[in-house]
């Protein structure tokens, strides 16, 4: 019996107890093609708005860099070719202003982003290490313009929710979750997520951030680590070495934010049924114990199987099940992109998830677009992406992760400080970095789930964290475009990107 089957058996045996404790729904049956959210109440058709700027796809990180904004053009062409614009309001992106970006990012860092260009980079190279500029985060033409476009879309999407103009707002160009207050990180320069959440906190007392990127959402967690007004929940690969090296299960927040950072660390090769069961069980408990008034969902597609930098076995339908589940709660929802480096699969995934958000059924045969040959040889919306990586998530490990996370969530029931306040308090105080560290209870076990790691021990001093690279650390990335079957597609992608 494989680990997925074993884990589902454990879940079924615990189902009655979990339901009595209102912790989550029973496991999904993936034998059905209907992708039903078993036991989840349906809500009336939400109003959806969609943000896109054609220019955002034209920027280029570099010839061999895995981050390709061109994936956004593929996504938008599929969305429009499927006719999904009929079900939502389409908005052109407004660029974020310097003042808006400075609401989170440090003045000297914003000044640097504004001034640096490939032409003057050699004169400014001495500042690069200070702002973590390098192979992962290179200087490229129009870099600050690119940041303003994707950030402006996230800010406007958040404001559309605040005004009541939409129930769900979508910005696939956003979701750049690694950027810190004073430095770039992991292909991210401006943290549009933090800036969007700051907008939402002006009205919503409690905001939930959910991250299904394969990498830990460290920049967002770090920004809100000391507040109970934002709960951050991240499902990611964690072994202490995989970028960004954070996301240990015992990173739980400090001070007022104690227990409001939730991390679900996973190992290589997790599959559809196991991931969705874990996600739904955890998120049901999060919604019941935190009671968010708004949700931000980062849908990084590098957690799909066959991703260039990823190591999970998720198919697009399972990734979309997470979106469907969060939508089912009927809470104002901001949906963002994120990672994803096999761009034909990224565009298929985000197109499918757009259809989930507007309740549209899409045929599996892709409509013809100018990028049709990117999707060879199958030309399907749902290619088979699973099975490449052995599943290292044992039933025992997943059971321990679930038990630990659910215990953490039960401990915060009724705890948010603004729960009974009509007017949310100041939104800037908890962004200060001069908080005292607090001790974290660490226990050891044979899986190392609760062992203290260097990354975990440094988490409360973000300014002193050693710089890491997402792609250029030679950490065994799944580099699809170096394999013969992907070589032609990679060359075509590079030609279009340039």
Automatic annotation (TrEMBL):
One of its GO terms (cellular component) is Rpd3L-Expanded complex. It is found in: Nucleus. One of its GO terms (biological process) is epigenetic regulation of gene expression. It catalyses: N(6)-acetyl-L-lysyl-[histone] + H2O = L-lysyl-[histone] + acetate. The keyword Plastid does not apply. The active site is at residue 178. It holds the Pfam family Hist_deacetyl. Residues 472-483 have a biased composition (Acidic residues). The lineage of its organism: Eukaryota, Fungi, Fungi incertae sedis, Zoopagomycota, Kickxellomycotina. InterPro entries: HDAC_I/II, HDACs, His_deacetylse_dom, His_deacetylse_dom_sf, Ureohydrolase_dom_sf. Residues 1-39, 438-498 are annotated as: Disordered. Its EC number is 3.5.1.98. Substrate binds at residues 136, 186, 341. PANTHER family: HISTONE DEACETYLASE 3, HISTONE DEACETYLASE HDAC1-RELATED. SUPFAM superfamilies: Arginase/deacetylase (SSF52768). A divalent metal cation binds at residues 213, 215, 302. Residues 458-467 have a biased composition (Basic residues). This is Histone deacetylase. Residues 65-356 form the Histone deacetylase domain. Belongs to the histone deacetylase family. HD Type 1 subfamily. GO terms for molecular function: histone deacetylase activity, hydrolytic mechanism; metal ion binding. Keywords: Chromatin regulator, Hydrolase, Metal-binding, Nucleus, Transcription, Transcription regulation. Residues 1-12 have a biased composition (Polar residues). The keyword Nucleus applies.
